[in-house]
Structure formats: C-alpha cells, structure tokens
C-alpha cells in the first residue's frame, strides 16, 4: 500500500527569498506527502551539505529517485532513509544534498501517514508515544547572523514554561514579542525584524537582557503563569582567533563561561544554546558542570544532530540537551536516532526550525512524536506560525 510510485522534486521559495527543495511523494494506494527543506544562516561547520537546489534536485533525480520508486515503502521510514543514504554514498549527503534528502525523507513520512490515515505525529511517534506537548521557545529579540546592526547574541527566546496549554504558550510568546516592541518604542529605539521575525534593534546585549526581562515579566503578570527566557548565543559565529567577539570587545573562553554563568543566575535563564564554540567540548562541559542543574545547556552547532558528535559530548559531559534539526543531518531516521541517544543519556532533545523556512510544519509533528520538552520555531511570521498553528491543531486533535 505504501510502495512509492513517484517522487517529484522542484524549487520553491523560502522565507529569505532563496530557492529551496520541495519533494512530493506518492504511493501506490494514493498516499501523498509534500515537504520542503529549510536552510540555516548560522550553520555549524559539521552539518550535512546543502547543495544549490538545482544541483541537489538533479543529483537526487539521478541517484535517489530510481532507487525509491517501485522499490521502497513510504511507511517504512528506516528503509526510505537508508535508501537515501545508499544513493548518496557519502558521509554527509554531499552527492544528493541534505536539502534533497530531508525533503524526500519528510515527504515520504507524510505519504506513509496519509496511507494509514493517521496524523504525522502519530505515525512517527506510534501508539505508545508520551502525551506531552513541547513548550515553544519564541524568538523575540535577536541579531548575530540573522540581522545586521543588532545584538551580538543571536536569539533572546521567550519560554512560557508555566503555560497550561500549547495554545496559551503560543499566544504568550506573541504577547512577549508585542510587549518588547512597545518597550523599544518607549525607549525610542527603532527596530526592524531579523530573519526569524524577532525584533532586531540596535541595542547592546545588556539592554536586550533588560528589555526581554521586562517584557517577560509584564506578560507573566498579565497572564498569571510562569514565563522565563533563554538564549541562542550561536557562539561559533563570534569565535575568531581564540576569542569571542562582542562588537569591539572580546572575551576569552574563561570570560565567556563566567559571563554566561552570571547571566543564567541574574536572569534565571531556562535555556542557553551554543554558549561556546562548536569545537569546544571542554568549555561546554565546564559550563554544564557549573549551571547544568538549573538550566538547559543545548548543543546546536556543537552536535549538528549527529549521533557521533553527540556521543563525544556525552562522554565528556558537554551540554545537557541537544538541538534537533533534521536538515543538519539529512533524514528523519538520523534525527530520531539522535533524540533516542540523547534521551537514553538523560538529555533533553529540543526540536528546531532554521532561520530560512517554508510553510512546512513537519517539525511540529516531530516534536510531539518525540515528546520533546521544547520546540524552537519563532513567534510570528507565516513560516513560523505555520508550525505554531499546527501545534495548536495537534493539541486539539490529540486530547
Ligand atoms: O542557530 C539556530 O539555532 C538557527 C535557528 O534559530 O539558526 P540557523 O538556521 O541560521 O542556523
Ligand atoms: Mg542555534
């Protein structure tokens, strides 16, 4: 029933106006799945390779499509993804592109779910999945590689940890986003938006901490449940010549660790992603040792959703959580394996979008299927609300 009968690939627009790969998968009983690859700006050095979409599509048509059509069942995700790996033949999808691979992998999952008549989260998570819903981490203020002339820290993320439901959490983040805009207005600071729809004001990181803290506590008072905040420092992007660059100032690794630890305590941060360079397992381990009992230290560029890099991190105690981005590694199977290895080792898996996105909402299902405590998917703008609104629908459907 789920035997794949066709795989169509095309270029579509992403949220930055760049082309990306979209895949349509059809099965013999009429099951249909469509998915598109997202794309990063602050990409990790060890991510799977994203090829120019035209090249990725041509290579996938040549190598992968003939091995999938009439041969593989969309309902068997491991078989689909193993076929993509075999068709590619490299370690990092440098032949067919991780963008083609992930689009096909996700489209096949949707086609498999369609045949079964089950929602995607149910198909991926199975009957015995947990019944938790992720707390959305909402990007409210940011800069780094996502906006010019803004903060050095890439993302200040609202985290409505006390929200009674997904829907209330989603609306709480939108309120924090709106409140931050008012505070910026009151301070006379003009603010454009960055790639993910966060405000990108020309303020110092210290000011952004203050604005964020005020916005979060105002909305917390209004809504009556706990809202905290966290960061994606994306420190690899700041790290050059052995030091971290904050505009004209620099911090050594020790100073960076002290700074992050201080911010965790001063602002009661619930989440800190990529506080150190992607090669600094030791620094990650030291910081996790210092503050890991009270906050999540999450590896994004550090782990790139890769089980080998995650295992290296587990061996030395670097981080207590991992960011999961299917396109960083190329298939849903690889993403699930990373989630499984993390949870077997007591680490939280946080499912994430990319700064370049489409209206594809697969990650909302992935977060529910894997019982993730958090999902990082922005706050406003269509390509972000596509995932948030899907989460609300899933919660509606599942309870
Ligand atoms: O660093 C990140 O976590 C992501 C998403 O917020 O950004 P990018 O997709 O540019 O890597
Ligand atoms: Mg990141």
From TrEMBL:
Chemical reaction(s) catalysed: (2R)-2-phosphoglycerate = phosphoenolpyruvate + H2O
Cofactor(s) it depends on: Mg(2+)
Family (UniProt): Belongs to the enolase family.
Cofactor note: Mg(2+) is required for catalysis and for stabilizing the dimer.
Cross-referenced PANTHER family: ENOLASE (PTHR11902)
Domain Enolase C-terminal TIM barrel positions: 130-398
Annotated (2R)-2-phosphoglycerate binding sites: 154, 325, 354-355, 376
Keywords for this protein: Cytoplasm, Glycolysis, Lyase, Magnesium, Metal-binding, Secreted
Residues annotated to bind Mg(2+): 232, 273, 300
Name by which UniProt lists this protein: Enolase
PROSITE patterns given in the database record: ENOLASE (PS00164)
Residues reported to bind substrate: 146, 155, 273, 300, 352-355, 376
Gene3D superfamilies with a match to the protein in the record: Enolase-like C-terminal domain, Enolase-like, N-terminal domain
Any one GO CC term of the record: cell surface
Taxonomic source organism: Haloferax marisrubri
Annotated SUPFAM superfamilies: Enolase C-terminal domain-like, Enolase N-terminal domain-like
Superkingdom classification of source: Archaea
Active-site residues annotated for this sequence: 196 (proton donor), 325 (proton acceptor)
Limits of the Enolase N-terminal domain: 4-124
Pathway the protein takes part in: Carbohydrate degradation; glycolysis; pyruvate from D-glyceraldehyde 3-phosphate: step 4/5
EC number(s) recorded for this UniProt protein: 4.2.1.11
Pfam hit, one: Enolase_N
Enzyme class: lyase
NCBIfam families xref list: eno (TIGR01060)
GO MF terms held by the record: magnesium ion binding; phosphopyruvate hydratase activity
GO biological process terms held by the UniProt record: glycolytic process
């Amino acid at each position: 029933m789920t035997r794949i009968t066709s795989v169509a690939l095309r270029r579509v627009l992403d949220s930055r106006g760049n082309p990306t790969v979209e895949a349509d998968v059809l099965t013999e009983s009429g099951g249909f799945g469509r998915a598109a690859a997202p794309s990063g700006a602050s990409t990790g050095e060890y991510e799977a390779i994203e090829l120019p979409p035209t090249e990725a599509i041509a290579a996938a048509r040549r190598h992968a499509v003939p091995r999938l059509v009439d041969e593989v069942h969309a309902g068997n995700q491991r078989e689909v993804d193993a076929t993509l790996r075999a068709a590619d033949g490299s370690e990092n999808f440098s032949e067919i592109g991780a963008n083609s691979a992930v689009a096909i992998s996700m489209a096949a999952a949707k086609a498999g779910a369609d045949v079964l008549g089950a929602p995607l989260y149910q198909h991926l998570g199975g009957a015995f999945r947990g019944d938790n819903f992720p707390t959305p981490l909402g990007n409210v203020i940011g800069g780094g590689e996502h906006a010019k002339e803004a903060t050095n820290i890439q993302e200040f993320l609202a985290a409505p940890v006390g929200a009674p439901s997904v829907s209330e959490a989603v609306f709480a983040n939108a309120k924090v986003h709106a409140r931050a805009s008012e505070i910026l207005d009151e301070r006379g600071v003009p603010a454009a938006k960055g790639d993910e729809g966060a405000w990108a004001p020309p303020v110092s990181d210290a000011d952004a901490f203050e604005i964020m803290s005020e916005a979060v506590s105002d909305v917390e008072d209004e809504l009556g449940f706990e809202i905290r905040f966290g960061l994606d420092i994306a420190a690899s992007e700041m790290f050059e010549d052995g030091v971290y660059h904050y505009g004209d100032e620099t911090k050594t690794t020790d100073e960076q660790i002290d700074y992050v630890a201080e911010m965790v305590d001063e602002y009661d941060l619930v989440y800190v992603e990529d506080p150190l360079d992607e090669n600094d397992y030791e620094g990650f381990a030291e910081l996790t040792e210092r503050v890991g009992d009270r906050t999540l230290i999450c590896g994004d560029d550090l782990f790139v959703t890769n089980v080998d890099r995650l295992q290296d991190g587990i061996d030395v105690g670097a981080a207590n959580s991992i960011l999961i981005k299917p396109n960083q590694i190329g298939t849903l199977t690889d993403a699930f394996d990373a989630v499984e290895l993390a949870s077997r080792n007591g680490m939280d898996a946080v499912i994430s979008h990319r700064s370049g996105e489409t209206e594809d909402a697969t990650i909302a299902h992935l977060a529910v299927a894997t019982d993730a405590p958090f999902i990082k998917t922005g706050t406003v703008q269509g390509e972000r609300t596509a995932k948030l609104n899907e989460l609300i629908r899933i919660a509606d459907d599942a309870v």
